[in-house]
Structure formats: structure tokens, C-alpha cells
Amino acid sequence: MKIKSMGFAFVFALVSMVFMAQNAVAEMGNGSTNKDNLQIGTIEKLGNRELTIATKFEKDSKKYTMKLHPDAYVMTGDRGVFKKFTELKAGDLVAVYGWNLTGNDYVARRIVILDANSYLIKRLDADAKAGVYYKHEK
Amino acid sequence: MKKKLFSLLTLSVALVALNLPAEAKKVILTDKDARDWHVIAPQDSDYPLRDYAILYDAGGTDGAIGVIGIPSMKTYRHIKCGTDMHNFPFSGSNAGNNNGTPDGKYLYVSDKGSDTIDEVNLQTGWVERIFALPKPFGIHHSAALSPNGKYLFATGELTGKMLKLRLSDGATTVLDIPPAPSAPDYPDTSKDGRYVFSGNYYHSAVMVFSQDPFKLIKEIPVGKNPHGTNVSPTGRMVSVCDKLSATISIIDVDQLRVRKVIPVGAGPLHNQFDSLGKYVYNSCFVSDSTSKTDVMRMQLVDEFPIHYRCGHNSIAPDDAYYMSQNKFSTGLFTPTGIIFAVNFEEQDIDETSPTYGKSVKLAPVDGEPHEGRQIFATYIQRWNTGKGEDLFEKGYDLGDYHVSFGATGRPGLPANVHSQLEPTHTADSVRTWIPRDDGKPGVTKEGDVYVVRVKGFSYGYVPRFIHVPKGAKVRIIYTNIDKAAGLTKNPDVTMGFTAAGYYGPRTMIFAVRGMSAVDEFVADKAGEFEYYCQQFCGPLHLEMRGTFFVDPPGGKASMGVGDYDEMSKQDTMLAPGERQFIVGTNKLMNKLNEGSEPVI
């Protein structure tokens, strides 16, 4: 009985370790996850205070649908000009700052319309073309 | 007549001809020029030098928040706050980098000298309320806001404590962080409401707390003496400045372990992530440089030289400029008093700019500034152009988001009132300078005065412990005995002395070589008070600590024995009529309902 229990504990520990190790490699270094607090991408779809983006500068683009937080606002990254949500257009390159509350619903607290000519975007673009992808931390 | 007409015609032609070259000389603006301050696009103001961003800096020893235009670096104003201002977040949300996602209403600045947090209303430009923290606490930093903007996390560096504060009424939960010595340093919060990270300077570890319930869950060993600790805007990592290891430790937030240790310049003090989390910039005090690390490559990619001794730093909200907030100005400026102005150095970090990596402006600043954070100028409204009444009920819009102060009032602040507080900086003490005093360090009694001779040097005090009885008339004679300012050798190093908390406003004195600073006050409250050097003096400046005990009749003061309830009212900070604007105090200690106070 005792040996049986120990065997079960050993197998359980082994399975747990494998599970934890698999989870570990799924995070930092392997592209964006829905736990991230910032996503960069182009707008694919706009709904009622909701947007879907396809991430950019990563190895594989991912899609995230985000709902606007009641206090969310939209602005440009250049001189802080504020915009209305209705001024966003499909194809806009945006940075969305927010969080994931339930594991499914991503809440956007601030949306920044990015300038494709800004040095950071040029750098992210050039790096991605050279194989250094955003959120693929080495 | 014909001659006159001919002359007139000739003159007209000549005038037109003279104008032509002037037209031809007109500057052709490029996209790059458009972001420069002297050629900005037309504004709704006739003031030609309007800035697109504002740097708020916690001014340290001047007891004020400095308000500086970016990129012009003009100082617009100082907001009087208290004694020794250190560190703050903007109200709103912590989403993003250090600059957060502001709503433009407040910033919450820690006053290390007075052991308080001030609520500064950015729209009025005045302190609105003072959070009286539980005593003894010994605050150093208050930089960490919960994602929903309702709670603040602060470190009690001088007592080894941490606290969580509810911003509506000042209620707190306070945690003790053993074992001693324990010095919780810069905190930051994860943007998803899970964690608070704070370096523990003496443990050489980063502490991890859950935000709700607020409790310590882990210590992660990092390099020697961690200082700046910041969560990246992606929320994926924390960058920790290992001050004495010349590295930054990158902590994986999901796994709560160090993912990589990256060598940077010597003496890294503070982090600034850009708004997309691509780079982190570090101020490196000993190497006099700004290190730039690519966090995707996880390696140092550039280093910019700076002038004298960088400390804190900040970054423009459009990532165009990095501000190195330097500690000494040896030989740079015209002397304006016993203590030299320190300086801010603006560096161009736009990789496509012809001046990339160069310092483009250098300006003297008041006080000895600590943390700075920048926001776009568009957050601050123009109340003085005929719409002042909107401040009270209507509010303002940030795109779709309507911001209102509301008309119902809050604890400590009646409805439809915005206070104009000017906290005190002296609290009835008398401070003078005398020729250098060479008396033996320690406490002696001269008549009815307890004379306390303290020597300050790089990096320590003699004596380390001072005892006087409650009610004593105290005269502190403080002398800088440095010969070469320790490691830095800068001749303009000043040594500071402040007994934090109740005596902070009464004891902040400065010692320059060749003279002694004298401070006289009555020690009317018993307790244990850490004293520290408030004027940055070198890489081990944080090590300059001692303890000032005001012993009650028949006993010895300690963290548990003293007039702490009375002191927690912070009465000396404001004039009697203003004290209604103080919230918090010991009465609200450990009154948060942990586990059911949502932080997101």
C-alpha cells in the first residue's frame, strides 16, 4: 500500500513537472499571449466598442479581440492628439494597452494610433525582417 | 515730376527685390523638423514656444514638484508639496510604461522627509490633499498604482515595511518585511493586477507581493543592492537595476524567476522602458552613461555618455527624448548659492534623427530631483480661458473618455472644492550656518540645550545613534568631514541630514565643506526616527543612515514606543485651518478588506 502510494506520488510529481515545463516554454520568448498588457497590430475589425487586431512584428501573427474599458481612450502617439473610437479605421496600426480579466476577454484601456514612420516602428519592422521578432525575447 | 515718379518706381522695385531673397531663404520643414520645439505647428495660443509634453519631477530637497516643458526644458513652475519629494505615479491607470495611462487629474508624490503622500491636482497645479501615513513607516517611494487607479503601493524603506493605500480615504494595509536589515526600494505593479514588485536593497532580492490580498509571496534573488525595479509595458518582464553588480536582472513575470542577467554600464540606478517595450534605458551613475538594452535581443545595444553623474531618468511620451536627471553640476553653471544647482540633460533617442544619442539640451534645475514622469501637454486643460466653472462639475474629454472631478466631494475634501495647499518646509525650526565646527561627535548638554554634533562623510554618519529626552531643546551641529567626496571626487558634493517623519520638516540641513549647518528645534514628540542624507552624495548615498531617538520619560523610544498616534495626524505639515485636507492617519491602518478590494 505504502509503495503504491509512493509510486502514485512519483508519477503525479513527474506529470506535474512535465506540465509546468510545457507551460513555461509557452510564455516569454515565444511571441504574444493573451496575458500581455500591450499588443501591437493592425485593426482587422471594428465593432461596438470592440476591435480585433492582427499582431505585427511577431514570427506568426495572432488575432486578439478587445473590448473597450469604460475609461478607455484613443490617441495618436504624436503630440498626444486625442481621437474618438469611431475615428479608428480598419488597417490602422495601433498599440493597445490593457489586460485580460477572465482569460478570454481582453480589456483595452488605451489605444494609440502608431505612425509607421516613427523610428520604433521602423526598427520593429526591420528587426522582424532580420529574424528578431517582437516578443520573441532571446 | 517724371523724375520723382521714376525714383518712386526704382525704390519699389528695389524693395520687392530685397524681399525676394528673404522669401527664398525660408526654411523648408521636413517631418523631422516638425517635432522640434521652435518650428512646431500652429497652436491655439500666441505663445511661440509651447511644449508638446510636460515633465513633472519630484524635486527632492526643494519640497516641490518641478514642472518642465519638453523639449524646451523651460521650468514653468514649482508646486509646493512638503519636505523631500521622491516618487509618484499619475492617476488613471498603470497601463503602459512609467508614464502610465494618465487621466490628467492627479499625481501622488511621496515625501520621504515628512513621511506622507501628497495628492497634487494637475489641473489646478496645487496640492489638494495629504495622505497621513501610519507611523512609524518611513516612506521612500509611492510609484506603484493598481490597474484601476484606486490603490497605491508604497515602500517604507526606513522601517522595512510596505503598504497598500486606498486613494479614496487613505485607509491602509501595512506589512512588515523581515529580516532586518530590510529596505524595500522602488516598487512597480504588474499591469494585470496580479503582483507588486519591489527591490529589497539589503536583501539583494526582488520581493513579489500579490495586489489583493496584499501579501508577500516570494523573494527572487537578483544582483547586488537592487534599486530601480520596473515592469515593462507588455507586462512580460521586470527590469531590475543591480546597482553594485553593473547588471540588470530581467525577471519573467509569468514564471517569477530571473530570465537573464544583462551587463550594462557601472552603477545602474533606474529603468525607463519606451512605450512599446522594445528598449529599456538605464541611468548608470558610475560610468556616467545611459545604457540602452534591446529587450527582444536581451542585450546591451548602445551607450550614450552623459555629463555629471546621472541618477533618475524619464522618457518623453512619444519616445523621442530621454531625460537624464543628473546629480552634480561640477563646473557647469554660475553659482547661485551654497548648494549648486543639479541638472537635467535631454538626449535625442530617435534613431532616425541626425542627433541620435547626443545630448541636445542641458539645464540647471532646482532641488535635488528624484523621479520624473512625462505626459503629453494635451492632458492639461486651459481653465483660465473662460471655462473655469467646468473644472467643478463638467470636467473635460480625452477623446471618448469623459473625465470629471465630480461635485460630491471625497473624504477630506468637501463637495465642489479644490484646495490650494502649501505644506510647510520648516515647522518652526531655526537653521543657520557657522564656520566649520571641529567639536567631538556626540551629545553634550550646554545649559538647557542638548547639543548634538554629527559628522557626515561618504558614506556614513558619526554618531549612528542619537538619544535626547522628550521635550529637550535640541541643537544639531552638522559638519561635512569629507576630504574628497568618496568615490566621485566631485568637489560640490553636499552632505545632508534629515530625521524622517515628524522631525523631517524641522531637521533638513545641508553641510558643505568648510562650514557647519546648525538646526535648533524642540523635540516634543517621543519616538524612533531614521535620519538619512537627502542630498545625493555618491553611489552608496543610500547607506547613509542613523537613528534619532526621542526618549519618553523613564523609558527608551523604539518603533513600538513613541507618540506615533499623535504624530500620524501630520499637524505640523499644514496651518490649522488647512488640516481638514489631511486624510489617513493611524486610525485607518489595516482597515482594507483584503481579498475583496478589486485592484483591476
Name some characteristics of this structure.
heterodimer, A: 138 residues, alpha+beta, OB fold (Dihydrolipoamide Acetyltransferase, E2P), 2 domains, five-stranded mixed beta barrel, 6 strands, 25% helix, 35% strand, B: 600 residues, mainly beta, Methylamine Dehydrogenase, Chain H, Immunoglobulin-like, six-stranded mixed beta sheet, five-stranded mixed beta sheet, 4 helices, 6% helix, 42% strand
List the SSEs and their pairings.
The complex is a heterodimer of chains A (138) and B (600).
Chain A: H1 2-25, E1 38-47, E2 50-55, E3 63-76, E4 82-83, E5 93-100, E6 106-113, H2 119-129
Parallel strand pairs in A: 3-6
Antiparallel strand pairs in A: 1-2, 1-5, 2-3, 3-4, 5-6
Chain B: H1 2-24, H2 31-34, E1 53-58, E2 64-70, E3 75-80, E4 90-93, E5 101-111, E6 116-121, E7 126-132, E8 141-145, E9 151-156, E10 161-166, E11 172-176, E12 184-189, E13 195-200, E14 205-210, E15 215-221, E16 226-231, E17 237-242, E18 247-252, E19 257-263, E20 268-273, E21 279-284, E22 289-294, E23 299-305, E24 310-315, E25 321-326, E26 342-348, E27 359-365, E28 372-376, E29 396-398, E30 401-403, E31 430-435, E32 442-446, E33 449-457, E34 460-462, E35 465-469, E36 472-480, E37 495-499, H3 504-507, E38 509-511, E39 515-523, E40 527-532, E41 545-551, H4 564-567, E42 582-584
Parallel strand pairs in B: 7-42, 33-36, 35-41
Antiparallel strand pairs in B: 1-2, 1-28, 2-3, 4-5, 5-6, 6-7, 8-9, 9-10, 10-11, 12-13, 13-14, 14-15, 16-17, 17-18, 18-19, 20-21, 21-22, 22-23, 24-25, 25-26, 26-27, 29-30, 31-39, 32-33, 33-34, 36-39, 37-38, 37-40, 40-41
